[in-house]
Design brief:
Elements: H1 2-23, E1 33-45, E2 62-73, E3 76-80, E4 93-95, E5 98-101, H2 106-112, E6 120-124, E7 143-147, H3 148-155, E8 180-183, E9 187-188, E10 195-199, E11 208-214, E12 218-222, H4 230-235, H5 245-262, E13 265-267
Parallel strand pairs: 3-6, 6-7, 7-8, 12-13
Antiparallel strand pairs: 1-2, 1-5, 2-3, 4-5, 9-10, 10-11, 11-12
The chain binds zinc ion (ZN).
């Protein structure tokens, strides 16, 4: 009798282990995930002083790349950040020492790789600043993923919030608007651990970064605007206009440690020197 009970217990254990195994997330090498870096504009500053509260860039002209990323997960597509406005194409601007330009839209770049904008089911923004959100209205049917805290800012009635252009969020604001998924902390975008939004607040109240776990390339960490330039990563220098220096430093510490533990490839989205860390469009990282 005892043997029978033991056998039954063992069978149950095996069954449970088998069931658990079937539900486990795919291992790194078998994930069906692919990522493209999209050109999303250029920013030139006559003086980079405001990008450091420790005088790191005083008097230095600085160039910033505008980067967006398309991530394919099986048949699903996620867009991470949506760049500068399309109105800049063929009409660059220059005002108060800041020059903005854009060569081609996200939709045009998607066409080059045969992706219908309607196939983008999710669009996530690292934060609410206009250089990361301006082409959002081209994806009105996608679910918008944004941090709870940044969404509060977008929905507030406060006027004159620096770098916020509310009209970019029109498809998701008001009655009958598009679907919004607000994120309180970290978020597993596809539920299998392959694409993870990481809370890195400080630049804005709810700023986020993104970890993409690619089958061949390995782990890639996209900074959002946690860092703008490689030099900041060494100096832990914080832009003067950040929401919170304390939160930024804490986020930098967590981000750096995550990158170290995972041996991840870090891509500073605005650093022109980091553009080549991913294959040049239309090639993808796999
Ligand atoms: Zn930015």
């Amino acid at each position: 009798m005892r043997k029978l009970i033991l056998a039954a217990a063992l069978a149950a254990t095996t069954l449970t282990a088998g069931t658990l195994q079937a539900k486990e997330a795919p291992t790194a090498g078998t994930r069906d995930v692919e990522m493209w870096r999209l050109e999303c504009g250029g920013i030139h500053l006559a003086d980079g002083a405001t990008f450091s509260d420790t005088h790191l860039f005083d008097g230095q002209p600085r160039a910033l790349a505008g980067s967006c990323y398309l991530i394919r997960h099986g048949d699903d597509y996620l867009l991470w950040d949506t760049g500068l406005p399309k109105s800049l194409i063929g009409a660059p601007t220059s005002e108060h020492g800041v020059s903005l330009s854009l060569e081609s839209s996200i939709v045009d770049q998607l066409a080059q790789i045969g992706v219908d904008p309607k196939a983008i089911s999710k669009v996530a923004v690292s934060h609410y600043h206009f250089d990361h959100t301006s082409q959002l209205p081209d994806f009105p049917n996608a679910t918008l993923l944004i941090s709870e805290k940044d969404w509060e800012v977008v929905n507030s009635r406060e006027e004159g919030i620096p770098y916020l252009v509310r009209s970019a969020f029109d498809p998701w604001l008001g009655q009958g608007a598009g679907k919004v998924e607000t994120i309180a902390k970290d978020h597993d975008v596809f539920g299998d651990g392959s694409v993870l939004i990481k809370a890195t607040p400080g630049h804005t109240p709810g700023h986020n970064s993104l970890l993409v776990r690619l089958p061949k390339t390995g782990d890639v960490l996209l900074t959002g605007d946690l860092y703008h330039f490689q030099e900041q990563a060494f100096a832990h220098s914080v832009p003067q206009y950040n929401y919170s220096r304390v939160l930024t430093l804490s986020s930098m510490s967590r981000f750096d440690e995550t990158a170290k533990v995972l041996n991840a490839k870090v891509v500073i989205q605005h650093d022109p020197g980091h553009v080549a860390r991913l294959p040049a469009f239309p090639k993808s990282a796999q």
